[in-house]
C-alpha cells in the first residue's frame, strides 16, 4: 500500500479502464480469471507487442493494462485476499514472458528522455502529471520484485525456479554492464543533482530497497551467510543468533520525553511522593518483575528516595498505578517463579580488550608492560589471574579481524602470496559497480533523508521530494487540504523508512563481505554529516513520531479497490486509524539508531565530536538508545562519566585525526589492490628476451608508413644521446 500515494487513487480506475478496453476487444464475453494459463500467456504476449509501438500515448495505455494485471485485476475480485493472490500469480506470469526486461528498456528510455527533463526544469511547480510514465513503469517492476521475492510454502516448483533465475538476473548483470540496483542509484543522483526533478523518488527508493533485499538477502539470510563464512575461516560458531534473542525479549515502555522529565522533576522538588519506586532490572532476559521485590526492598528504597528521585519522575502517577496493582494486605503463600538472570546475549571480548586490561594491571602492580603478551601473569595478584581467565573464556574473534589480518599480510607480501581469490557474490559485484561513484550515492541519499526528516524546515535551495505526491490542481476545501497534508507526511515517512532500511542493509552486507568495504561506505556517510543528520532527526518528540497517524486506512491498497469507500470527513481524518503505533516510523527509528551505532562503534574519532554531550543528553530519553549510550559515554567530556567508566586507552584526543587518516589509507590500499589493476604494474613480469620482444606483433596505424621517416628524424636522430645518464641508474 505504501507504493501508492493517496493522490494516485484515481489512476487505479484508469489502469482498469485501459485493461478492460483492450481485453474485451481481444477476448469476447470472458473474464481474466476464467482464462487458462495458455490463453493468459497469449494475451500478455499481445500486450508486450504493444509496448514496441512508436506512439507514446498508446505505449502508456498498454503499460497501464499490464500494471492492472500486476495489481491483481481487482475489478474481478471480491476481497483483498483474492487481489493479492492474483497479483502474485500475474507477477510470475509476467516475468516468465519477459515483461521485466521489456520494462527495463522502457525505463532506460525514460531516464534518458531529455525532453521530459527540460520540460520539468522549466515548470515552476512539478506535479504527478510530470512523472506518469515513470510511475507506471516503476510500479510494475516493484510489484514483480516484491511478489516474486517473498517465498510461500505452496509455491509450485516452477515459481521457485523463476525466483532464483530472477535473483540471478538482478544480481549478476547479463544484458547490461551493471546490476539493476546501480541504475536506480544513478536515478537518485540524477534527481539530487537537479537534472531530473520529476523523478518519483519514493517509488525509486522503495524499488531500490526491495531489489537489495532480494539480491543480497535479508537479516536471516545474512545470519546464515555469517555462520557459513565463520566455518570457512575456521572460527568457532556464533554463541547465539541475535535475531532469535531479540525476538524472545519482552518490550519495555520508552521513558518520557526529556522536557517533560525536567518539568516533572521541577514540580516534585517541593512535594515528593513516598511510594516505593519501580526499578526495572536491565539484566533480566524476560524483563519481568518479582512481585515480592517491593516488600523486601521497600525500606531501603524509601531511605534512598533523594538519590532515585530522578528515576521516579520518569513514570507518571497514573501510569504507575496502572503498572503496579494494589497488593492485598494478606495473601496466601505463592510459589515464587524464578526467571533466568544475566545478559540477553553472550558477552564478547576482543583481543585488544585483554591487552589493555593487562597493560593497566602491569603498570599498576609491577611497573612495566610486556607489549601484546597475554600469557605471562607473573607478579600479578590472584584476582587479576581470574579476570584474565574470564576474559579469555569470552574472547571473540570476528570475521572482520581475520579480514584485516589477511589484508595486512597481502600488503606486506604481495609477490609471495599472489593474487587474492575473490568470490563473485552479489555483494561483491554491487560494491565493484558502486565503487567509483559511491560518495555521490551516499550524499544523494542523505540529501533526500534530510529533506524528508520531520525536523527539517523548508528551504529554497533544498530538493523537492514531493513531485510525485502533489496533484495538478491544489486543494480548495478544508477536507482536501487535510487529506493532502496526511498524504505528504505519509510520503516523507515512507522515504525515511526506505532510505534507513537500504543504508542499514548495505552496511551489514558490506561488513560481512569485507570490512574495508563497510569502512569505505561508513567514511563517506560520516564525511557527508550522517551522524549530525541522525541526531537532528531525533531532536523531536519521539513518542509523538512513533504514534503519528498519517494514514487513511480506507484509502490503502488493496482495501480501496474492493470495498465501498465511506464518506471522508474532517473529523474522521483528524481521528486517524485505530493503530496505537505507527510501525513504519518505529521501524525507521530503529534503523537509524542501528546505523548510528555502526558508524560510531569503536570509532573514537567519530564519537569525540562536539555533539558528544548532546548525544549523551538525548540518548537518556530516546527509546532503544541504551546500547549506544553505554558504548559512547566513556568518550564524553563530562566529568561525571569518569566515575562510571574507566577511560579507554585508545581514547586519546591527540590520536583522533591520525586514527581516521590511518583507516582511510588502509581503505585506499584495499581498493587499489583489489580493484585498480593497471597493466604496467610494478609487479608485472618483464620480458627480458631480445628476440621475444622484437618478435611481438604490434598494431600500427594505417598512415604510419607515410610518416615513418619523419618520426625517425624527429624522435631518434635529432635527439642527442646522453650516455652519462646511464650512470645514475647503476
From TrEMBL:
Domain (Far11/STRP C-terminal): residue spans on this chain: 381-708
N-terminal signal peptide: none
Pfam families hit by this protein: DUF3402, N1221
Top-level taxon of origin: Eukaryota
InterPro entries hit by this protein: Far11/STRP (IPR040185), Far11/STRP_C (IPR021819), Far11/STRP_N (IPR012486)
Coiled-coil stretches: none
Domain Far11/STRP N-terminal: 1-284
GO cellular component, as recorded: cytosol
Gene Ontology BP annotations: cytoskeleton organization
Homology family: Belongs to the STRIP family.
Cited PANTHER family: PROTEIN REQUIRED FOR HYPHAL ANASTOMOSIS HAM-2 (PTHR13239), STRIATIN-INTERACTING PROTEIN 2 (PTHR13239:SF6)
Protein's name according to its UniProt entry: STRP2 protein
Organism listed in the record: Rissa tridactyla (Black-legged kittiwake)
Gene for this chain: Strip2
Amino acid at each position: 500500500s505504501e507504493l501508492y500515494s493517496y493522490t494516485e487513487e484515481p489512476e487505479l480506475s484508469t489502469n482498469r479502464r485501459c485493461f478492460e478496453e483492450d481485453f474485451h476487444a481481444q477476448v469476447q464475453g470472458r473474464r481474466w480469471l476464467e482464462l487458462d494459463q495458455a490463453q493468459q500467456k497469449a494475451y500478455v504476449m499481445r500486450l508486450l507487442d504493444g509496448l514496441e509501438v512508436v506512439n507514446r500515448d498508446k505505449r502508456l495505455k498498454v503499460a497501464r493494462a499490464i500494471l492492472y494485471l500486476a495489481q491483481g485485476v481487482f475489478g474481478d475480485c471480491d476481497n483483498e485476499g483474492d487481489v493479492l493472490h492474483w497479483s502474485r500469480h500475474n507477477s510470475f506470469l509476467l516475468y516468465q514472458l519477459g515483461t521485466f526486461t521489456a520494462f527495463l528498456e522502457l525505463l532506460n528510455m525514460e531516464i534518458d528522455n531529455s525532453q521530459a527533463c527540460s520540460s520539468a526544469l522549466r515548470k515552476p511547480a512539478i506535479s504527478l502529471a510530470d512523472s506518469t510514465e515513470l510511475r507506471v513503469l516503476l510500479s510494475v517492476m516493484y510489484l514483480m520484485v516484491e511478489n516474486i521475492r517473498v517465498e510461500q510454502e505452496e509455491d509450485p516448483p516452477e515459481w521457485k525456479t523463476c525466483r532464483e533465475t530472477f535473483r540471478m538476473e538482478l544480481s549478476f548483470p547479463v544484458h547490461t554492464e551493471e546490476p539493476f540496483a546501480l541504475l536506480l542509484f544513478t536515478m537518485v543522483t540524477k534527481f539530487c543533482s537537479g537534472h531530473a526533478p520529476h523523478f518519483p523518488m519514493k517509488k525509486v527508493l522503495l524499488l531500490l530497497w526491495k531489489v537489495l533485499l532480494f539480491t543480497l538477502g535479508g537479516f536471516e539470510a545474512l545470519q546464515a551467510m555469517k555462520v557459513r563464512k565463520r566455518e570457512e575461516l575456521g572460527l568457532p560458531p556464533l554463541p547465539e543468533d541475535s535475531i532469535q534473542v531479540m525476538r524472545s525479549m519482552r518490550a519495555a515502555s520508552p521513558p518520557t520525553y526529556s522536557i517533560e522529565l525536567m518539568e516533572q522533576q521541577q514540580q516534585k522538588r517541593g512535594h515528593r511522593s513516598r511510594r516505593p519506586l519501580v526499578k526495572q532490572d536491565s539484566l533480566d532476559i524476560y524483563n519481568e518483575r518479582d512481585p515480592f521485590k517491593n516488600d523486601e526492598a521497600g525500606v531501603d528504597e524509601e531511605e534512598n528516595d533523594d538519590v532515585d528521585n530522578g528515576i521516579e519522575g520518569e513514570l507518571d502517577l497514573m501510569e504507575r498505578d496502572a503498572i503496579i496493582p494494589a497488593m492485598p494486605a494478606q495473601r496466601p503463600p505463592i510459589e515464587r517463579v524464578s526467571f533466568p538472570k544475566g545478559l540477553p546475549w553472550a558477552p564478547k571480548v576482543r583481543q585488544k580488550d585483554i591487552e589493555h586490561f593487562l597493560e593497566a594491571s602491569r603498570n599498576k602492580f609491577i611497573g612495566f608492560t610486556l607489549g601484546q603478551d597475554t600469557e605471562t601473569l607473573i607478579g600479578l595478584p590472584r584476582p587479576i589471574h581470574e579476570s584474565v581467565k574470564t576474559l579469555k573464556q569470552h574472547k571473540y574473534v570476528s570475521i572482520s579481524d581475520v579480514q584485516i589480518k589477511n589484508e595486512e599480510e597481502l600488503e606486506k607480501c604481495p609477490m609471495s602470496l599472489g593474487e587474492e581469490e575473490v568470490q563473485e557474490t552479489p555483494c561483491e559485484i554491487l560494491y565493484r559497480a558502486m565503487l567509483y561513484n559511491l560518495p555521490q550515492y551516499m550524499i544523494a541519499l542523505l540529501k533526500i533523508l534530510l529533506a524528508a526528516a520531520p525536523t527539517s524546515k523548508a528551504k529554497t535551495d533544498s530538493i523537492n521530494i514531493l513531485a510525485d505526491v502533489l496533484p495538478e490542481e491544489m486543494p480548495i476545501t478544508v477536507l482536501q487540504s487535510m487529506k493532502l497534508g496526511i498524504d505528504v507526511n505519509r510520503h516523507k515517512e515512507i522515504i525515511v523508512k526506505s532510505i534507513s532500511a537500504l543504508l542499514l542493509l548495505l552496511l551489514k552486507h558490506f561488513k560481512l563481505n569485507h570490512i574495508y568495504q563497510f569502512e569505505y561506505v561508513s567514511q563517506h556517510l560520516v564525511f557527508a554529516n550522517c551522524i549530525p543528520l541522525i541526531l537532528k532527526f531525533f531532536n523531536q518528540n519521539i513518542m509523538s513520531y512513533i504514534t503519528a497517524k498519517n494514514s487513511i486506512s480506507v484509502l490503502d491498497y488493496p482495501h480501496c479497490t474492493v470495498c465501498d469507500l465511506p464518506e471522508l470527513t474532517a473529523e474522521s481524518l483528524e481521528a486517524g486509524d485505530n493503530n496505537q503505533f505507527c510501525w513504519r516510523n518505529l521501524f525507521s527509528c530503529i534503523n537509524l539508531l542501528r546505523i548510528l551505532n555502526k558508524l560510531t562503534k569503536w570509532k573514537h574519532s567519530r564519537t569525540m565530536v562536539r555533539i558528544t554531550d548532546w548525544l549523551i543528553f538525548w540518548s537518556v530519553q530516546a527509546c532503544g538508545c541504551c546500547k549506544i549510550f553505554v558504548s559512547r559515554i566513556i568518550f564524553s567530556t563530562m566529568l561525571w562519566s569518569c566515575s562510571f567508566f574507566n577511560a579507554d586507552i585508545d581514547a586519546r584526543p591527540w590520536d583522533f585525526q591520525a586514527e581516521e587518516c590511518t583507516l582511510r589509507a588502509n581503505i585506499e590500499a584495499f581498493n587499489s589492490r583489489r580493484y585498480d589493476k593497471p597493466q604496467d604494474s610494478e609487479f608485472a613480469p618483464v620480458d627480458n628476451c631480445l628476440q621475444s620482444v622484437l618478435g611481438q606483433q604490434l598494431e600500427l596505424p594505417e598512415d604510419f608508413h607515410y610518416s615513418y621517416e619523419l618520426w625517425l628524424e624527429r624522435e631518434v636522430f635529432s635527439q642527442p644521446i646522453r650516455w652519462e645518464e646511464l650512470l645514475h641508474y647503476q
